[in-house]
Amino acid sequence: MDHNTKSKYCTIVNKADKTKYLCFLHTKEGLLNVGLTNASDVWSTDFTGETLAQHMKEFRLKSLEGYFSKIRYACGNDSASVLLEDSGVVLRVGSAPGTLTLALPRLGDPEGREVLRDLLFKMADSLSHLDSTASVSPAKSQQRGYAEFEPRRQHTGPAVTARKRAPGDSLINPGMRRKRAATGVSFDDSDDL
To answer: Which residues fall within 8 angstroms of residue 37, CB to CB, at 6 or more apart?
Structure first.
């Protein structure tokens, strides 16, 4: 694997037909390749330095890392979609105004197979490289390595807020109030006479 090439991956589940796609981005010497595959067909486009700068300006992106983050965020939040056309696909990233759209032409049979093979080996080399540089804990390194290939999920559970403790509430059992020591009652027999 060429270690000058940086690669990022995420998965997209198309809402329209529930088809799963692998989105891949490769950068090398300032050039960017964006591609999409369903494991049988491959759609891909290359950006030169000039076309990449124009594309990033159009979508108000400041860096390649911002570009990767936008795509990965959309993959994780199900706000990326794929529209199949005769000669390729249109990848839409985001659902708000300023949605990033990419027209990716379909690659022919021999070129598509070559891209799939290269993609498979890049991913395998990336996993092997992560395993060889892993720390002492294999469980943590395995978790970290496979996270690169999955979209990031946003926490969607209910927010848990800490309740402020009222004066007199028990620290051990917060639902109960602290019992105060009895002060006693004064009974005077002299008042009854």
So the answer is: 21, 22, 24, 43, 115, 116, 119
State the Rg of the chain over Cα: 29
Distance CA 43, CA 34 (A): 9
pLDDT tens-digit map of 119-131? 999 888 888 877 7
pLDDT tens readout for residues 100-115: 888 899 999 899 999 9
Residue 66 φ/ψ, nearest 5 degrees: -65, -35
CB 115 within 8 A of CB 34: no
All structural domains of the chain, each given as residue ranges with its CATH number in brackets, are 6-147 (2.170.210.10)
Relative to beta strand 42-47, strand 80-84 is: unpaired
CB contact at 8 A, 37 and 116: yes
CA distances from 192 to 33, 185, 187, 189 (A): 100, 16, 10, 6
| 174 DSSP assignment | T
CA atoms of 13 and 82, how far apart (whole Å): 9
